[in-house]
Amino acid sequence: PSSSLVLDPDFTVGEVNPRLFGSFVEHLGRCVYTGLFEPGHPAADDTGLRTDVLALIAELGVTVVRYPGGNFVSAYRWEDGVGPVAERPRRLDPAWKTVETNEFGLGEFMAFAARAGVEPMMAVNLGTRGVREACDLLEYANHPGGTARSELRRQHGADQPYGIRLWCLGNEMDGPWQTGHKTAEEYGRLAAETARAMRQIDPDLRLVACGSSSSSMPTFGAWEATVLEHCYDLVDYVSCHAYYEEVDGDVDSFLACAQDMEHFIDSVVATCDHVRARLRSRKRLELSFDEWNVWYQRAFHAADKPEWTVAPRLLEDSYSVTDAVVVGTLLITLLRHCDRVTAACLAQLVNVIAPIMTEPGGPAWRQTTFYPFADAARYGRGQVLRVEPVGSRHDTAAHGEVSLLHATAVVGADGDTTLFAVNRDTSRPLRLTARLGGLTASRVAEHRVLADADRHARNTLERPDRVRPTPLDPDNGGAVLDGDQLSALLPPLSWNVIRLT
Ligand code: AHR
């Protein structure tokens, strides 16, 4: 199999917004407790944050972190998580059937965000709560002082306002599983009034309305249209969520799931623009793909789960090479739509369907999926080129015929270009040729690949470095640049980063 493409700086999609490389921390399982926060751990700092995890987060290149949920937020009282820790209540979390101790709350999260150097993306509870509580939280977080809630924050040790700009108006309100689930009409009105009131307090906010929880929701499309009829002019983004998994060993369909993400993005963009036309609005909405990942959800729903315990092991998926390559295809798809998808969050960050794993009292380590994300976050900055691979294709049961090559390219501020490429063929290498139309590059700085003879290989506590990217030299198919012709042999089922300088 072979594929060719053209890299031409005259044809661009747009500039990548750094918020595309966000992640997500929910009060779920061990994401917070014994994940990023573990007082008493040998690597914990003075606030209980694990410095070994902070170091991995820095290496991962995460820019934004969404918090505190997820399904969790829809029954959460933010007041429970502020003030003296000894006085904070233990509560039932109905979403995950766990006990929330509230030892970690807004102040601890903001300390984490500062130390990790990430932008906070805060979600408000629009499941069991409404306009008033969202405004109270905003006052506590962002108002300088001189009012009840802003003074409370100052008493709690945060003299300066947090200045949180990004806010999610609830979470997955289209889902019947959501505590306080709403119809599109109900949610659209609530989102509009919450947005209006929040902007009255702080006009300089970026607000996200809930879109669909997946493209397979029965209300997909109609939900966005109805919600946006109510709040189009009051919000900046509509959210998208998508999780994928390999079903019944159909690896080809799994490797093609970026087709669904593509369809999702195109459909939501079309719906936003339809509402824009109807409302004769000049504003163009952006998409916040604020939950995406591989998640073995069927196994999660089928399993017996602990109930009403503190920080149980939940959703601790162990990711294979195949999963990492799929994560790579999803990153490529987000980059290919960077003109409209301007924020995104890999769900989640630590332990819970996460690129980073920890053991209580023990080490922290990288899953296979860590690597494509770190590559994209590092080199996927700049202008995305319009890249259209032409060549070998194959048929898949779930997504029809797809190209074996999935690719995009980004020209950085320094003029260097990075080509991200996935070979979806599980058994054969793919011959890639690219013509550099107008792109100036003199050599291949690096061709790095994530692949393995065993597509099920994964990193574990016992062997945390079983899978890692390796350089591919020209003798083994690594990329070669000859004049304006780039060629490479991409290994079967592989994630490739080819950097041209
Ligand atoms: O990320 C896990 C869960 O997936 C989130 O809590 C929810 O928003 C989504 O359904």
TrEMBL record:
Belongs to the glycosyl hydrolase 51 family. Signal peptide: none annotated. It comes from Goodfellowiella coeruleoviolacea. It comes from the Bacteria. Homohexamer; trimer of dimers. GO terms for biological process: L-arabinose metabolic process; polysaccharide catabolic process. SMART domains: Alpha-L-AF_C. InterPro entries: Alpha-L-AF_C, ASD1_cat, GH, Glyco_hydro_b. Transmembrane segments: none annotated. It is an enzyme of class 3 (hydrolase). GO terms for molecular function: alpha-L-arabinofuranosidase activity. PANTHER family: ALPHA-L-ARABINOFURANOSIDASE C (PTHR43576:SF3), ALPHA-L-ARABINOFURANOSIDASE C-RELATED (PTHR43576). Keywords: Carbohydrate metabolism, Glycosidase, Hydrolase. The lineage of its organism: Bacteria, Bacillati, Actinomycetota, Actinomycetes, Pseudonocardiales. Its EC number is 3.2.1.55. It catalyses: Hydrolysis of terminal non-reducing alpha-L-arabinofuranoside residues in alpha-L-arabinosides. This is non-reducing end alpha-L-arabinofuranosidase.
